[in-house]
Amino acid sequence: MVDLSGVDRAPSIVDRARAIILTPRDEWPRIAAETTPQGDILRAYVLPLAAIGPVAALIGWQVFGYGVLGFSWKPGIVWSLSTAIVSFVMATVSVFVLAFIANLLAPKFDGQSDKGQAFKLVAYSYTASWLAGIFGLIPSLAFFSLLGLYSFYLLYTGATPLMKVPQDKAMSYTVVTILCAIVLAIVVAPITAAITGLWAAGPMSAVNNEISGKLTVPGGGSVDLDRIQQATKQMEAAASGKSPPVAPDRMKALLPAAIGDYQRTATEAVAAGPMGSTTQGTYTRGDKSFTLRIADMSALGALSGLGAALGVEQSKEDANSYERTTTVGGQLQTESWDKTSNTGKFGVTVNNRFLIEAEGSAASVNELKQAVGAIDPEDLADLLG
What is d(CA 249, CA 220) in angstroms, rounded to the nearest whole number? Predict the structure, then answer.
C-alpha cells in the first residue's frame, strides 16, 4: 500500500469555501503556497460555484416567476435556460479577464506579476459572490445577493499574500481592481442581455427602472432602496466618466502639517485615471507613527453606500483587541485597536465617495480619531465642485 500521509492534498470545495469566507487571512497564505494547476481550479472550484447563481435563478423563475411592484411574469423555459447558460459563461470568462487585470496592475503597486497567483486571487475572491447567488432561488430575496460584496474584502486580504502588494498599498490596488470589475460587469450585462433578448422580452421591460422607499427584511431591519438607487447611479456616472476622481494633489493640500504633537514626515499620492485616486501623509512622534489617508473611491464609494443601505454592522472582540464596522449617519465607519501593540485603524466614508482613514501606532485609538477629524468633510465636498 502506498503511504500518502505526507502528500499535500488540496482541500475539498466545501472546506476551501468555508475557510476563505470565515478565515481569509489564514487561508490566503495556504492558497499562495499551493501549486494546483489553473485547469484543476477551474474544473473543481470555479465552474461548480459559478453555476450556483444561474441555476438558482433558472429554478426560481420557473417555480415562482418574477414579480415586482405589482407586475408578475413567468419566463418561458427557453428564455430562462438561455439566460442561465449565457450568465454562467460570462461569469467564467470574467474570472480570466479580471485575473489578467489583477496581474497587470500588481507591479504598478509594487507587487509582483504572476499569472497563476492572479488567477487564484480572483477565483477564490469570487467565492462570496457566487455563494450569494443562491438567493436567486427565490426571486423576492434576490436583493440578498448584495452580500456577495464580501468578495471585495476577500480580494483586499489576498492582495499581499498572493500578489506581494505591500500592505500599505493593498487598499489602493484593491480599489483599482474592483473598479475594473465594476466596469467589466457594466460591459458584460448588456452583452448578456443582447444575447438572450432580455431587453426585448425580459421581466423588467414593462416596469420603471426607478426604485424608492424602504424594504422591510423578514426577521427585522430594513433596506433603504433610495440609497441603493443612488449607489447605482453613482456607479454608472463613474463608469461613464461623468464623475471623474479628484486629482490627488488637490486632496494632498488638505493634509495638515501637524496633528497634535505628531509631525508630518512624508507624503504619497497615487492616481489611477478614472479608477480613483489616493493621497496620504505619514505622521510621527517618537516611536509612534501612523498614516492619514484620503481616498476618492469613485464608483467604489457606491459600494459603501450599498453597505449603508443594508445597515451593515459587524463586531469582533477579545481580551486584547477589537474590530467594528458600523453605519453612522448613513456612512460606513470602521474601527479597530490592539492593546498589546498599540496599533489600530479608524476610518469614515464621506458622501459615499471619499474615505478618510488613519492607521498605525498611537497612544490610543482616540489619536487616530483625532487625525481623521482633522479633515473637514465640507472641504472634500468642495473638491467636487
Answer: 45
- Pair 71, 169 in one domain: yes
Judge if pTM exceeds 0.70.
no
Q: 259 and 332, same structural domain?
A: yes
CA-based angle 189:134:64, to the nearest 5?
Answer: 85
Q: Find, among 289, 299, 294, 292, the residue nearest to 249 by Cα.
A: 294
- Give the CATH number of the domain where residue 325 resides: 3.40.1000
Give the residues across from 337 on adjacent strands.
322, 344
Neighbours of 118 (CB within 10 A): 24
Closest of 25, 5, 6, 23 to residue 15, by C-alpha: 23
- Cα–Cα distance measured from residue 260 to residue 364, given in angstroms and rounded to the nearest whole number: 13
Residue 131 or residue 306, greater confidence: 131
Domain enclosing residue 62, as ranges: 13-205
Q: How many CA atoms lie within 13 A of 42 on its CB side?
A: 14
Question: Which tens digits make up the pLDDT trace of 73-132?
Answer: 555 565 566 666 767 777 787 888 888 889 888 998 899 999 999 999 999 999 888 887
Q: Residue 246 is placed in which grid cell?
A: 479628484
